[in-house]
Amino acid sequence: MRRVLLDARAVAASPNRNARSAVVWGRLLGIAFVVCFGTGVYSHLLQDPLPWMRFPTRPTQLYQFTQGLHITAGIAIIPLLLAKLNVVMPALAQVPPVRGVLHLLERLSIAVLVSASIVQVGTGLLNTYQWYPWPFPFRQVHYALSYLIIGSLIVHIASKLPIIARYWRARDAYDADGRFVADPTVGSELLPDGQEARPAVGERSAAERTAGSYPRGLTGRLLRWVDGPAAPAAPAAPAGAAETRAARPDSASAARDLSLGASLGDGADGTEVGRASRPEHDDALPGPRQRIARRGFVAGVTAATVGVVALTAGQSNRLLEPLNVFGARRRYVGPEDLPVNRTARAAGVLATATAADWTLTVVGPDVTRTFSRAELVALGTATADLPISCVEGWSQMASWRGVRVRDLLASVQADPASALRITSLEKSGGYRVTEMGPEYASDPTTLLALEVNGKTLDLDHGFPARVIAPGRPGVLQTKWIGKIEVIR
């Protein structure tokens, strides 16, 4: 009896599960991760700069762009990650799971990359809605995970570099008929390298023949659900049918059977193995059908990615604003037509911010002054068009009016290019006290804002006074200010 050589890692009902597909979705994911990493590190350093760091204040919408890109790329990762996992699932479910020390290290890097990515994307998405159902601090963990993901991604790329180089171009991955070209020399777990012998198909039950291309357990059931129902087996042929077909080798039926026999082998009794009695191998599908399946998969993932981006990016992009269905904030909704993240009630400043005797204390190197609201206006006011850009991804341009911060510094005989410590009337909170670098303090558009969009600041927008500066995260645009100090 002839034995059929089949590799469970390569036998997949979907023609999308091959090394080329893994490379395509992998490089898109890699780009998205790098974009998220770069923009995320920039946002983190703006909030916790090293002593020597200075940041650009132009263009004034820089942070609006970088953080909008960060959130958009992070949302796009969700369908791309699901697509990648679908493609490589046969490799992840291989048996045995580990084949040596180096393979163990590679598998560990993949486990770290996948698990950290799922946690990072999941918690990041919930952060945009300001929902934190976990016991750890989000910002610090999110920042640490970004380095873990990039590190494991580098290890993963290094281990898969031969496969990436081999299947980087589509023309090297498919033949003229559109069938995937398997290259066992590159060591991909989605290729028929290291084939193992299995009993002839004819010796197995119908259930085994149907499920032969899938791993056991929950993973196998999940893969069968993703791929859809298998084609029904052909009815058993009469005893003389094989002889009748063999006697007419020029018929279409005989040609089809001979082709199948050549690829699968014959049973011990001379009967031919029917197509439905074996697992579907990628190469058995005609080239046009493989192309259609691949294009359909690509189109589906592309539509999902474009959809989730388009339906959320409107919270920071004016062109996509009408499509903002799932965004955490809607532009032009809120007091003075401006969204609010943290309200005065949540900050606990309802009484102190509206007190009739409120004053602002400005502490210079040698001079300290206090200002009432009327005295601040008497210093002279200026107008600046600057965006509020929140770390959650939403942003909106607004027209602010108030006192230039550098004029405040001049009133206490301080250098306009001084580093500042700004204290809010809030009693607690991670951003109750913030620091501002000299590049912001000296910028003519950095204001102690008293008005927004032609109206007195609403209490939820920071009344009686707040800071607004170009290119800074919204959490650093301190509201309900009580004191400004020059850092010596």
Please characterize this protein's 3D structure.
By secondary structure, the chain is α+β, with helices and mostly antiparallel strands. Helix content is 40%, strand content 12%. The protein has helices at 19-47, 62-92, 101-128, 138-159, 161-166, 206-211, 217-227, 241-246, 252-264, 287-310, 344-347, 373-378, 405-411, 438-441, and strands spanning 4-6, 196-198, 360-363, 368-371, 382-389, 395-404, 420-424, 433-436, 447-452, 455-456, 466-468, 481-486. The strands form three sheets. It has a five-stranded mixed beta sheet with strand order 4-3-12-7-8. Strands 5, 6, 9, 10 and 11 form a five-stranded antiparallel beta sheet that branches. Helix 1 (19-47) packs antiparallel against helix 2 (62-92), helix 1 runs antiparallel to helix 4 and helix 2 (62-92) packs antiparallel against helix 10 (287-310). It is elongated, with a radius of gyration of 32 Å. The termini are far apart. Mean pLDDT is 81; it is low at 1-12, 192-212 and 239-283.
